Amino acid sequence: MFRKLCFSLILSFSTCITLSSQDVTGIWKGYFITETGEYYKLEFQVLQTGNAGVTGVSYSYLDIRFYGKATMTGNFMKNSSSFRIREIKTVEVKSSLGGGTCIMNYNFTYSKSGKEEFLEGTYLGKFENKYSSASEGNWGDCGGGKV
What we know:
Elements: H1 2-20, E1 26-34, E2 39-48, E3 53-63, E4 66-77, E5 82-95, E6 102-113, E7 116-127, E8 144-146
Antiparallel strand pairs: 1-2, 1-8, 2-3, 3-4, 4-5, 5-6, 6-7, 7-8
């Protein structure tokens, strides 16, 4: 009898912990604004893999001139409402703009108002080296802006 009661209490406690944690899994849609004022549509498909870790893919669109898809990783710190996403590499790019491909590093603040959830922040870009696992240069070399 004591073992069953103890097991029930432990199960209830772990369920309460799970229910109180924030899950950012889902599709997040919005846009980012470049330093030159161009608006790109942006979408993240996020899977939360643990308490803080996330993986997924990102999509960005300018118009018929640019489309990009990249794999990404990141983390969400509920206690500070901080959400960070770093693109790892592009997996598909269609561009008539010329120039190199950039991967992005996003820093967000998470907020919620009623049933709506928001991510707002900034991004920095880095030139991607398709022939190496390392990217070229520093974050910001490929622009930055607001998200």
